[in-house]
Amino acid sequence: MAFKFLQHRWQKITLIVVLALLGLTLIIALFANSYFAPKLSDKIKSQVLKSSDSLYRIDIGNTELHILKGQATLYDIKLSVDTAVYNLKKKQGTAPNNLYELQVKRLVVSHMQLLTLYFKKKLNVGRITLNAPDVEVSYHPNQKPDTSKKDKRTLWQKISNSLELIKVDEIYLNDVKLKYKNYTGPKVAVSQLKELNLKATNLLIDSATQKDTSRFLFCKDVRTELYNYSSKSADGLYNFKVRSVKLSTQTRRLIVTGVNLQPVDHVTFFNKVKDDRFTFRVDSVVFNRFDYMNYQKSQDLDVARLAMYKGFFEVYSNYNGKLQTTDRLVTFPNWAIRNAVKAKFNIDTLDLKRFAVTYRQLNKKSMKTGMIFFDNINARLLNLTNGKELLQKNNIATAGLTSYFMGKGKLNLSFNFNLTDPAYGYSYKGHLGPMDIAEVNPATMPLSLVKITSGRVKSLDFNVHSTQKTSTGTVSFLYSNLQVDVLRKDYTKKSVITTLANAFIIKHDNPDDGSNAPRSAKVAFIRPANFPFFKTVWQTILSGIKPCAGVGKAQEEKFKKQSADDAKKEQEDLLKDAKKKKEAEDKKFKEALKKKKEGKG
Predict the structure, then answer these.
(1) What are the angstrom distances between the C-alpha of 346 and each of 82, 308, 397, 419?
(2) Which of 201, 249, 486, 554 has the smallest C-beta neighbourhood within 10 Å, fewest atoms?
(3) Are 282 and 307 in contact (CB under 8 A)?
(4) Tally of CB atoms within 10 A around 103
(5) Alpha-carbon distance 371 to 373, whole Å?
(6) What is the largest CA-CA distance in the chain?
(7) What are the residues facing 597 on neighbouring strands?
(8) What is the pLDDT of residues 482-528, one digit of tens each?
(9) How confident is the model at residue 261, as a pLDDT?
(10) Residue 87 CB neighbour total at 10 angstroms
(11) Which residues of 19-49 are buried (b: 16+ CB within 10 A; e: fewer)?
């Protein structure tokens, strides 16, 4: 009943013919698999050798080919550099800057049109998948980007005699282990990445795309994802972590999240080195219109807009550090832009959103740590570049920011930096809004042993023009009801000095009661060579704040003398107390000794 369709003779003949055809097809497929598999392997080897001008060679352990499925599986693949060819190209000046090596256990090519490849020389592939490959990239500064090469043919021109077209819809590299070696410095810098995934879409190499600059490595888009990267500095004092890195070559957008540079505790740190201790965190960094192709070729950085969101930066001054005797010009931004980075770079716009900056310093006299901080910083920096042709058009970098000093007083600040001036000229101006002066006690009490007991800032304005050696400008500091306590190192008040300071040294108001003309100051500050940039800026402004508060050189000298006299008197009082205490103890001892002798008698 179930096989009624086989009752007729023609049905049986049809079935036999179909089975025979299927069997013949299977036999042909099996034969083709065994025949074409080594052919495919040889074809790949010769093509890699030819297209790389013999620089690269590829070895393949085994190849499995399935004609009917359109799938090829390659095992134990190794892409390596022919060092003899590389050294020859290096002598000829045609060696590339980047070298690549690859090892992978298995590569799967799916939905491949093998007949089209064999008869029409067109390689059409649906997907290529590499699982857990080991990739090594080495950067050697062999040539500049514009170095001419003898063979100026495109990749398609090099392979066109063997293949008319190469098309791959998707390429997946999963769980990649990447090692990057940079040979630009005195020592080889090695970076290793894990948890790296790459996806490339629409790879096309033909006559139409051979010079298509919108494609990266002939792909319409290459997406890279890196997760949970971490490293440690060579001295073990810093840990560096990144939560994720994502790059799309089509959108030219690079996103980095969870950046964290964390030092060891300050006691361990300062016992080992004399440098200042830095902490840095940022939630996300976004590179917009990032020219990755140029960076990959020559390490040149070109970004239209770089944005950093929700960051924290702290400097802890090393209390075990030696006094700097070298010129600290290297800390100036316009010096760093011009000299610190050897590679060419251009950042048209740098935006900082919701940042906080903290500075900490230990006063060895009080053994207490002072702190100043700026909260909720929003800034925009323009024209950060060392490119000569760009500097000819515009040689001024600008920075404008708003923040809250000690979390309270709103500060507006702007800088201009001359990027070509031999004297490293720059200028800055700013305005600090109303706030209680007592908010600065976390800095003044530990570092200056001065406590602000009352006072209100009305405004602080400054406008300064500087070079690496001198700063000149104006400072205006308006305030009211300023009162201070001068402290000992245990924070107890020095009554005499406090009275002197409040009565004769400082002015309690600016402008004074009954006066409409506020005190302002013209500043002229000569920078000591060992002063870094921000210390120079602060000391220049401070040299204007002092006369606005009525503190001149004569008052400072008088205050220092009185402080010295007070300290001397305090020391004398301590010696007198100690002497009286000793005399009392001696008297008590003699009386006890006398009673003891009388008792024996």
Answers:
(1) 35, 16, 11, 13
(2) 554
(3) no
(4) 16
(5) 7
(6) 152
(7) none
(8) 898 888 888 888 888 888 777 777 888 888 876 778 888 999 999 99
(9) 94
(10) 11
(11) eeeeeeeeeeeeebbeebbeebbebbeebeb
Alpha-carbon gap, residue 538 to 525, rounded angstroms: 11
CA distances from 322 to 274, 318, 358, 370, 530 (A): 7, 9, 22, 19, 12
Please give the Cα distance from 248 to 213 (Å, whole number): 15
- Spatial neighbors of 417 by CB under 8 A, at least 6 apart, are 333, 334, 337, 396, 397, 398, 399, 426
Residue 56: count of CB within 10 angstroms of its CB: 19
Q: Which of 323-327, 356-360, 511-515 shows the highest mean pLDDT?
A: 356-360
Residue 146: its pLDDT value, please?
46
In one-letter notation, the amino acid at residue 43 is: K
CA distance 293 to 61: 33
pLDDT tens for residues 191-224? Answer: 788 888 888 898 888 888 878 878 877 888 889 8
**Encoding tokens for residue 395?**
């040689």
Query: Which residue ranges make up each domain of the chain?
Result: 24-143+157-225, 226-573
Q: Please compute Rg for the chain using Cα positions.
A: 38
State both tokens at 20: 């025979």
d(CA 552, CA 40): 88
> H or E segment at 176?
strand 165-182
Ramachandran angles phi, psi of 93, nearest 5°: 80, 20
Tell me which residue of 428, 421, 427, 426 sits closest to 338, measured CA to CA.
421
Amino acid at site 107? L
445: tokens are 């009490």
Using the predicted structure, report yes or no on whether residue 29 has a pLDDT greater than 60.
Answer: no
Residue-level length of the chain = 601
Neighbours of 65 (CB within 10 A): 24
Residue pair 501/559 in contact by the 8 Å Cβ criterion: yes
Is the pLDDT at 286 greater than 70, yes or no? yes
* Kind plus residue range of the DSSP H or E element containing 39: helix 9-51
Q: How far is CA 477 from CA 375, 432, 480, in A?
A: 22, 9, 10
Whole-number Å distance between alpha carbons of 160 and 51: 10
Distance CA(58)–CA(78), nearest Å, equals: 6
Residue 227 to residues 141, 176, 197, 280, 408, Cα–Cα distance (Å): 29, 11, 9, 19, 38
- pLDDT of res. 38: 59
> Any residues with CB less than 8 A from the CB of 509 and at least 6 apart, and which?
479, 480, 481, 482
Structure confidence at residue 24 (pLDDT): 40
- Calculate the CA 39 to chain-centre distance: 49
Q: In this structure, what token pair is assigned to residue 425?
A: 């000229």
Beta strand spans in 334-449 (E): 345-363, 368-385, 396-405, 409-418, 426-432, 435-436
| Helix segments in 214-324, DSSP class H | 266-272, 292-298
For CA atoms 143, 149, 152, 155, the dihedral sign is negative
